[in-house]
Design a protein that fits this description.
4-stranded mixed sheet; extended
């Protein structure tokens, strides 16, 4: 078994784990674009910027807890759990459905 196959098995297991829990408390939510692998000979012909075939839209959510250092008084965020999901579109209905399925009803979402 190669390292490549082990890495992909770990990714599959981690993806399945995300479906087992819901995020709670204060949630930070954002969308990001990640470049995906495409054939080298097609790269020059692809559209650039938003909507490019080279990029994929991903929703990123994390539980965020505000911590205060009692000595210095500095405030920082502590992130516990993360969830990432590839979005098929930029439609509000898809994002609302993702939030409904992934987050507890009592949480507060920061965008």
């Amino acid at each position: 078994m190669t390292i490549w196959s082990v890495m992909h098995r770990i990714r599959i297991v981690m993806g399945k784990r995300d479906g087992l829990y819901q995020l709670s408390d204060m949630i930070e939510f954002d969308e990001g674009y990640f470049e995906k692998q495409v054939a080298e000979h097609t790269k020059p012909n692809l559209k650039r910027g938003r909507g490019s075939e080279r990029q994929i839209n991903v929703a990123v959510m994390t539980e965020s807890t505000i911590l205060e250092n009692l000595k210095s008084g500095k405030i920082s965020n502590n992130c516990r759990l993360f969830k990432m999901k590839v979005l098929k579109s930029h439609m509000t209905t898809e994002i609302e459905s993702l939030i409904k399925d992934s987050l507890a009803k009592s949480c507060c979402v920061l965008r």
